[in-house]
Design goal:
about 300 residues; alpha/beta; 9-stranded mixed beta sheet; about 45% helix; about 20% strand
C-alpha cells in the first residue's frame, strides 16, 4: 500500500475512486486526472478488497504522483468505499469518479470555478457522453425526461439524470450523517443524490464533464434485484411529506416506466414489462414521457439497424 501521510494541508478538490477488480480500466481513469487543466487536487483510490491487480496499478500512480493515495479495505461494497474516501478527503470540494469512467480534461476546473463563483451552491454537475468500451462508439442516451420541472430534486425523483461521476459537492455543506447507504446494493447513488439535492442550491454546468463507459459489467444481470432496489429507494423518497402531489404522481409514473425498462431490457421479461408500462400510463396519463420515450427507443433502434445494413 502507498504510504499516506495525512497532514493539515488542504487542496481545492478531492476525487474519490472506488475500485473493485478494476485493473482493466483504472489506469485510464487515473490518467484522465493527471491530464486535468486544474492541478490542485488529490485522488483517493479506495481498493474494495480486489483480487486482481487493482492495488498494483494504484501504487504505480502513487509512486510517481504524490496527489494519488491508496486506501484498502476488505470487500464491503461501493458505498463503503466512497464513504471511506469521504472521511479522509481534505479538499474544499468533493467529487467521485468510477474506476471505469473518464473525466474530460477541464472537468476539475469547471467544477471548482462554478463553486468558487457561487458560494451558496452546495452541488453542481455536468453532462456525460456514453461510449462503447469495445468500439469507442458514442452511444446515444435513449431515456430522458421531456419537459423537466426545473427543480433538481423534483427532476431527480422523476428521472435519474445525474451520473455520480459527474457531480461535485462543497464538502463543508455535506452533513456528517449524509453518506452512501451500505444497506443498498442498487440505486445507492440515486438515493445519495436525492438526499443531497433536497432543499439545496444546486447549479448545473450544462457542459460535458464525463465519458461514461458502457460495457457488459456495467449492466446488472439480476433484473429482480435491480427492480427491488429501484422500488425500495424510490418508495422511501416518494413518501416525503414535502413532495407536492403532482410531482409525486409524475415520479410514481416514471418509476413504473423505469421498472418496465428494467424488466424488458435487463430481464427480458416482456410480459412483466408490459404490466409495469400500463401502470405508468394509468398512474399519470398526462406524462408525455410514457408515449414519447418508446417512440424514441424504437426510432433509435431502427436507425442503428439501418446503419449496420447500409
Amino acid at each position: 500500500m502507498c504510504q499516506i501521510i495525512w497532514g493539515s494541508a488542504a487542496m481545492k478538490l478531492s476525487i474519490i475512486i472506488p475500485a473493485y477488480n478494476a485493473e482493466k480500466y483504472l489506469s485510464e481513469a487515473c490518467t484522465s486526472l493527471v491530464g486535468q487543466t486544474l492541478q490542485d487536487w488529490e485522488c483517493l483510490i479506495v481498493d474494495d478488497g480486489s483480487s486482481d491487480g487493482t492495488a498494483t496499478i494504484a501504487q504505480g500512480f502513487c509512486s510517481v504522483d504524490p496527489r494519488f493515495h491508496l486506501l484498502q479495505q476488505k470487500n464491503s461494497g461501493v458505498s463503503a468505499a466512497r464513504n471511506k474516501g469521504i472521511e479522509v478527503a481534505r479538499g474544499a470540494y468533493l467529487a467521485f469518479l468510477d474506476a471505469d469512467d473518464i473525466w474530460e480534461p477541464n472537468t476539475a476546473a469547471l467544477f471548482c470555478s462554478l463553486l468558487d463563483e457561487n458560494p451558496d451552491c452546495r452541488v453542481t454537475w455536468g453532462e456525460a457522453i456514453r461510449f462503447d468500451t469495445e468500439t469507442g462508439e458514442i452511444k446515444p442516451i435513449v431515456w430522458k425526461n421531456y419537459f423537466p420541472m426545473g427543480n433538481p430534486w423534483y427532476d431527480m425523483l422523476i428521472y435519474h439524470y445525474i451520473p455520480i461521476s459527474a457531480v461535485c459537492i462543497r464538502k463543508q455543506d455535506l452533513p456528517d450523517t449524509m453518506r452512501f447507504r451500505t444497506d443498498l446494493t442498487h440505486a445507492e447513488d440515486r438515493d445519495f443524490l436525492l438526499r443531497l439535492l433536497k432543499n439545496a442550491v444546486a447549479i448545473p454546468l450544462n457542459k460535458v464533464v464525463l465519458r461514461s463507459r458502457q460495457h457488459e459489467a456495467s449492466v446488472s444481470k439480476n433484473a429482480d434485484a435491480a427492480l427491488a432496489g429501484e422500488i425500495r429507494v424510490m418508495r422511501e423518497h416518494l413518501a416525503d411529506a414535502a413532495l407536492p402531489r403532482h410531482v409525486r404522481r409524475r415520479a410514481e409514473s416514471a418509476l413504473a416506466f423505469r421498472c418496465a425498462v428494467i424488466m424488458a431490457f435487463t430481464g427480458g421479461q416482456y410480459g412483466r414489462a408490459l404490466l409495469w408500462y400500463l401502470k405508468a400510463v394509468v398512474c399519470d396519463p398526462l406524462n408525455i414521457n410514457n408515449y414519447l420515450l418508446p417512440i424514441r427507443k424504437i426510432s433509435m433502434t431502427l436507425r442503428h439497424a439501418l446503419r449496420r445494413i447500409f
